[in-house]
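Q: Hi! First time doing this. I have a protein sequence and I read that you can turn it into a structure. Is that right? Here it is:
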Amino acid sequence: MDATGPELLLDLDALEGGRRERLETALRAAIREGRLRPGDRLPATRALAAELGCSRWVVVEAYDQLAAEGWIEGRAGSGTRVRARARAGETPAALRSPARPRTYAFTTGLPDLIAFPRAAWLRALRQAVRTAPAADLGHNEPRGMPALRAELAAYLARVRGVHAHPAGVAVTHGFTHGLGLLCHALREAGHERLALEDPGFPLLAAFVRRAGLEPVYVPADDDGLRVDALAASGARAVVTTPAHQFPLGHVLAAERRARLLAWAREVDGLVVEDDYDAEFRYDRRPVGALQGLDPERVVYAGSASKSLAPGLRIGWLVAPRRWARAVAEVRWGIDLGVGAIEQLALAELLRGGGLDRHLRRTRQAYAAKRRTLLDALARELPDARVTGVAAGLHAVVLLPPGTDEEAVVAAAAERDVEIAALTSLYERANPPGPGLLLGYAALSERAIAEGVRRLGEAARATQPPSVAAPARRR
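A: Yes, that's right. Below is the predicted 3D structure, encoded as structure tokens:
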């Protein structure tokens, strides 16, 4: 197997479970026992499938699971390899018991959970329970409770410029659940690929593969998704974050917005708009939703994860009639909807203005936290640069060229600071340079300042003595 990876002896017959589970177990054992060493290349999926006499998708899904667990990794031009840190006998981080949370955890994707409007939510929950007709507690339509769908349609039209009708709204268990439903519908409609932004949210590819589609990666730059690369990808559907590209933080340029919609019309394609944190723009009003420009070519997707809390597990899709019908059809074989009481409570929160009031408070708080973060970075990392617009719950910090970002991450961890390396969010494209991803919403302003102070120490500790410079003091 010179062109496809090393020869690999795997005995699946002695193991229990389905073909994929047995393959995962055998590969884990080979890595744990040292028969596959860090850096070793695994056979190509087609070659291993032919060797085992199984479907290629069995191997693809096994590799995907092992990559999610941290055993292996895939990179363009070098195939799939055993992770350099997956030493023999060492359990990957994803499978270990959770470590003690860092005191200064700049976690991405989390709002301030302490600020969750408990009193308002409790009032809405009580009102929902008190007034819900008995029939609402029975088996309801998987698309969602009519009351919530109507409130979401009105709310999204008012605050995001979404062209929405309750009939086109589907309530989901969050964005990734909605994406999974869409992927199944796309596959039923004959799609084979789904384009994803690079860099982007790392877990999306797993949901795409589970639905039987092939994820293809399209680079994003300072103007957002590169539509020219999308057109060359062979995909006819794409997931994009036009209001605030994740993670780089840029807004999709007006010319690219127009080109993206033109591309969708030309290829009879679909744009999935992930509007994950557009409620939080601090310098001006956020750009309107892309869906409002072409409701027949864009599926709008959102959730309560950033505006309220991810633990609610409530999201929504606003889809054209064709795709709303397709999602409803595939859903019967996947799930029967979201809990009625939670839906009715959210409808009550929207109807009474509770969500608007909560967002006004948190928007002010997050803007202050962002200012604290930028001030601290200017003091402690004066040569670093923050990318993107003043929005969202995280910031990308580009470090000086030549900085070893993994060393900075490790040195920060020794100082009780948790951060993520920017390169961890890239699959194929080249990062603009070494960088860090800092989520600030869940930390207090005092913790942000102290965490960045420690981060500055970590960065200086990783530099050669001749390069390290003292932090600037005000």
